[in-house]
Every structure is written in C-alpha cells, then in structure tokens.
Amino acid sequence: MEADPMTANHLRTSMVTRLRDWDGGALPPSVDAAMRAVPREAFLPGTPLADAYGSSPVVTHRDDNGIATSSASAPGIVAAMLAQLDVRPGHRILEIGAGTGYNAALLAHLTGPGGQVTTVELDHGVAAEAEQALATTGYGHVTVIPGDGEYGHRPNAPYDRIIVTVGAWELPAAWADQLAPAGLLVVPFRMRGLTRSVTFEHTAGTWRSRSMHECGFMPIRGAGAVAERNIPLADTGLTIRIDDGQPADADALRRALSSGPAQSWTGIEVTVTGELDFWLAGLDGFFRLLAGNDAVQRSGIVPPAFNWGAMGLLTGDSFAYLTRRPGRPGHSELGACGYGPEREQLISTYTDRIRAFNRSQAGRLQVEVHPLTGAPLPGTLMQIDKRNSRVIVLTEGEVGREALGAMAV
User: Fold this and answer.
1) What's the pLDDT score for residue 402?
2) Average model confidence (pLDDT) for the chain?
3) By three-state DSSP, how is residue 128 classified?
4) How far apart, in whole angstroms, are the C-alpha atoms of residue 179 and residue 154?
5) Per-residue model confidence (pLDDT) at position 287
6) Residue 197 burial (CB < 10 Å; 0-12/13-18/19+)?
C-alpha cells in the first residue's frame, strides 16, 4: 500500500520543524531545504509513516541472530552531520555506508546538478536496494558502489567532503589520500567506547577536529572492523560494553554482582555532565554499563546516572559506575557505585576523577589523529594507540600549549 502523499508531506514538514534548532543554533537553510524536499518514506518501504518521520532510527536489516546490521539514522543526527559537513553546490562527495540511500539523496540535493555523490556500501543487497530507491526518487545520478568503505572509491576522487555513516574505529589512509586539499571529513569516531560525530581537517599527515557532537552508530564492518564486546550479566538484562579490544573476565564480572554494592558521593552538583566521559575514558578499564529501567528493577542494582546506564571502570573481577541523586533545584550530585572485591578502590578512583574534572572547568575538546610512528605527547587528556594511528584528545588549555610549543620549534 502506497503512502498517502498529503500525510507524508505533512509529517516531513513536522519533522523539519522539530529539527530547526540544531545544537543551540538554527539548522542551515540548505539542510532545511534538502530535508523538506527528499521523501524519507521512499527509502523505508513498508515502514509506517509515523516511524519514518519519527525521532528515532529505523532498523532495516538484521542478521540471523537478530542483531541490527543496517538502519536509517535518526533525523536529528542526519541533520546534525550534514550541518557539520557544510556541503556546497558543485561539491564532490564520498559517503561511506549507503544504507537506505536517503542520506545520499540529501547529499545530491545539496550538491545540485553540478556536483557528484558517490556512496559505498559493504552489503551488496543493501547497495542494490539503495540504488533502486535513489533511481525511483529522481536521484539515479548518485553513484552506488558495492564494496568496502575502508578503501573509499579512488576513481571519483578527489572529494571535497567525505561523510561516514557507521562508527569508525580508525581513519583509513584511503580517506586522507582521496580528500581534496581543504576538504572535510565528518565521521562517527570511536574512542574507547565513546562515539562522537567529528568534523576533521587533514594537514601534514594529521587529522584535527573542528567540531564534535555526541552520537551513536553501528560499528563499521569490513577490513576496518573492531567489534565492541558485550558482556551480559547473567539474566539481569544488564550489559557491560567495552571497546578498543580491552580485556575483561566475563564470569568474574557476573559474580561481582553478588557482592552487594558500595557507594560514595562527591558533593559535586551539576546541571549536565558535559565531557566527563572523556575524563573517565582516559583511565584503564573504562566501559559502559547498559541498564534500562527494566534491567535495573530486575537486577536490583543501584540505579545508574542515566536512563540508558552509565560510564564505568572495571578490573578483572569488579566494576564501578556513575550515579547521581537530586541536589539543589535543577542540579544533581554525582557519585559512584561499585560491585566486586575491588569496588572500594574503583569508587575512589572514579570519584577522584570526577573531582579532577570539576576542578579543571574543562571547555572545548579537540581530537587529533597522528601517525603511530610519532612520539606520544605528554600531559594530554587521552591517548589511544590504534592499528596505524595515535588518537590524542586535548582540552582547550592543552590545545593552546601545543600551539605555543609548535611555534617555538
């Protein structure tokens, strides 16, 4: 049954109206116009219109175990990443991860008839579906390439913009090689379990961030894959998720729950936690506890800080995570709760880090990706050695110090 055009147009207008305020500022007019023009429902056949134009992502493919392998991203993150990308008419664009083809259609609208959009999709079946949807909606001039986005698509390079719609653990050399001078890369970048949509520039062999926004994406597949590890805690519904290949003893962590909790409060009250998770991710044993309301009730654990769970720290047989309780009006007091034999030590480490974050009055963060052959930089917030690169996270003050050091060389 075909979607009613009048209803679809109304829902599309309502969706864009909800998106007009993006990260505290107005949605760029070009992105606003593109999202009004492209029929999202045409890329989600069989999906109810209310879901196609809702605020959540729409899963379109699952594997034999029911794990989602492809989806249409939530409209909010689509708009945010397009705003970061700053597409201009006539640009040549490379997209990694075609998915439904909806984002490629938006890119084609933004580049106009003088531009070119190439989208690469690992799953050949998904690529064929995207190609068909693009042709049906009048965007058949988009080039759909079945292949591994790790390698980009050299025949259509150089690209003024590259956008990635899956969580990338590494920034492959091909992306730097195929990006035009002064070009931009927007990518959901994975850093010790944290994912941020980062706008990168590439200069003299180093990627440097221009902007960064919190997001969530499925991990990239293919040659660049590094799977997240999910450890269910028995049948409680709780899950410990770790990234970057960190070790964890699943059986010992499950046993830790039986030890009973210990808890400590810091006396620090906040309205938002800001970039506290980056300060925690710089410590050994960082993880994310996934714990929805049902899991919290079923397991009986002390409620974590957020409705999805909380950031945490773990050792071989213990773990601790962020908690909060009401403070003065509009504020929450931060604390930590732990389970297992080493819970007190982990709680102490956790609360010390919260206090250090509070003292720092941390502002904007910058992410840099350097060749692994370079020397580590002292005094940074976080350094992560990957297969071929070193990821460095700097605070605003550290960015300034680094610049002064470079000038003195």
Assistant:
1) 44
2) 92
3) helix
4) 10
5) 95
6) buried
**Mean pLDDT computed over 138-165:** 98
Nearest to 305 by CA among 285, 287, 325, 277: 325
Beta strands 382-385; 389-395: pairing state: antiparallel
pLDDT value for 1:
45
Dist. CA 34–CA 48, nearest whole Å = 22
- What are the tokens at 266? 């810091």
Burial category of 67 from C-beta neighbours within 10 Å (exposed 0-12, middle 13-18, buried 19 and up): exposed
The residues, any chain, with a CB within 8 Å of residue 370's CB and separated by 6 or more, are 205, 206, 389, 390, 392
52-66 per-position pLDDT tens digit: 999 999 999 998 888
Q: Is 52 helix (H, G, I), strand (E, B) or coil?
A: helix
Q: Residue 199 corresponds to which tokens in the numbers above?
A: 């706008």
Q: Which fold has domain 5-214?
A: Rossmann fold (3.40.50)
Question: Where do we find the tokens 């071929």?
Answer: 388
Instruction: Assess whether pLDDT exceeds 60 at residue 48.
Output: yes
Enumerate the active-site residues: 73
DSSP for 68-107, please give it: EEEEEPPHHHHHHHHHHHT--TT-EEEEE--TTSHHHHHH
Confidence grade of residue 406 (pLDDT, cut at 50, 70, 90): very low
Cα 368 to the center of its chain, rounded Å? 16
